[in-house]
Amino acid sequence: MTGSVRVLHIAETAHGGVGTYLNQVLPALVADRDTAGAPLDIRVLLPAQDSFMLPRVDDAAITTWRRDGRSLWSLLMLAKASWHAYRTVRPEIVHLHSTFAGMIVRPLLLLARVLPGRRPQVVYSPHGWAFQIAGSRGRRRAIIWLERTLARITDRVIVLSDAEMRECVALGFPPKRLQRIYNGISEAPPPALPAPEGWPDQRLKVLFIGRFDHQKGLDTLIAAARLAPDRIAVRCIGASVVSGGPALDLPDNVAPLGWLDEPRIMAQLAMADVVAMPSRWEGFGLVAIEAMRAGRPVVASRIGGLPEVVEEGVTGRLVPPDDPEALLAALLADTPETRRTMAEAGRARFLAHFTARDSARQVATLYRQLLGREAARS
Fold first, then answer.
1. Would you tell me the crossing angle of helices 218-227 and 324-331 to the nearest 10 degrees?
2. Predicted pLDDT at 35
3. Same domain, yes or no, for 25 and 156?
4. What confidence score (pLDDT) does residue 4 get?
5. Residues 360 and 288 in one domain
6. Are both 35 and 149 inside the same structural domain?
7. Spans of the chain below 70 pLDDT
8. Interstrand relation of 5-11 and 298-301 (parallel, antiparallel or unpaired)
């Protein structure tokens, strides 16, 4: 592709927010042009079993590798596949997504410094920091040290919120390596695929979307549901990413749906009254803007970047994490009319700040700045 900027995106998983980001922002990046009309030639490397998560991305742009959980063997296969993709594509930009891709591939790309040709610019999107995960103090310190060290060999680290930016600077990350770019999704979702079973329930219909893990706080929502089985009904889209985790003990008013494609997610959003995000940490919160785009209020934890997305009392409610009683009270706090008003405000806020087009424009500008081509852009 003559005159194009070759960009290789590498992901260790495409479930959850990483997959949503790639599926929504990459097509907008493909559509981006500088003033000379030069396109971005986007290629993607991701696990074979996750390729269905990117229906908006051209199949010809996708290369896959076989992921078997998060075993040592899988990480070695990621390293091998990444190096092969790099040698094949010869990208000018390598954009890494999530912790494991960042930790495995960035040291590998140091080899590119001794190979003939221009060294690629390396961009890293952690999509939420591993050091925010609850664990021992020693583990957290080790991850912070590793991420801070790797940041110094990364041309740019994209953080998702001002809250993440402040935290990284406070932890000693080099500020000149950091850039805040909000996530975005397409303005027009795909048509909802009607759910044949519907959601015939007179209780408040609460939807959860995300991984079934400690970060996302599903256990807090389950505990809240147990407190009011006659007042709320919960549906959960997603599953555990790590195999072999403990089975969830679900009350009768909580129903797991597994991972769904985008049209089926839209169908569930259309039937829900409110979307719950009881996360324990969150760099941004893509699910919140998906809900706002669909015209649904959001009840979210007051942590990380979520207060930059959800406006208390305007587009939803903010509650402390790990507090089932507060979560339940916020879910039940508003009348249907108030929820409709919040939904309208949320839709307007989404269009003003969180579209894929705007996010892609900022990412494309970053790419061209790193390559010294920004002068060619209007």
1. 70
2. 56
3. yes
4. 85
5. no
6. yes
7. 1-2, 34-37, 117, 134, 196, 241-247, 373-378
8. unpaired
Give the pair of three-digit tokens for residue 152: 């110094």
Q: Per-residue b/e over 285-317, b at no fewer than 16 CB within 10 Å?
A: bbbbbbbbbbbbbbbbbebbbbbbbbbeeebbb
- Per the structure block, which two tokens stand in for 67? 């992921």
* Spatial separation of the C-alpha atoms in residues 212 and 173, rounded to whole Å: 30
Percentage of the residues of the chain whose pLDDT score is greater than 70 = 94
**Tokens, residue 44:** 């993607």
Q: 112 is written with which tokens? A: 């590119």
Q: Are residues 317 and 230 in the same domain?
A: yes
* Residue 23 near residue 60, CB atoms below 8 Å: no
Question: Considering the entire predicted model, what is its pTM?
Answer: 0.85
Partnered with residue 122 across adjacent β-strands are 94
Cα separation, 52 vs 57, whole angstroms: 10
356-370 vs 16-31: helix crossing angle, rounded to 10:
70
**Residue 186 token pair:** 């397409």
Q: Which of 26, 34, 43 is nearest to 3 (CA)?
A: 34
Instruction: Check whether residue 165 and residue 32 sit in a common domain.
Output: yes
Closest by Cα among 257, 127, 135, 268 to 194: 268
pLDDT digits (tens, 9 = 90+) for 9-28: 999 998 877 888 999 999 99
Cα–Cα nearest to 19, from 286, 371, 264, 301: 286
∠ CA(298), CA(321), CA(238), 5° rounding?
60
Domain count, the chain: 2
Query: How far apart, in Å, do the first and last CA atoms of the chain sit?
Result: 22
**pLDDT at position 246, please?**
55
Rounded distance, CA 100 to CA 177, Å?
19
304 and 169 belong to one structural domain: no
Q: Which residue has the tokens 């080899």?
A: 111
pLDDT digits (tens, 9 = 90+) for 139-181: 899 999 999 999 999 999 999 999 999 999 999 999 999 999 9
Query: What pLDDT was estimated at residue 228?
Result: 97
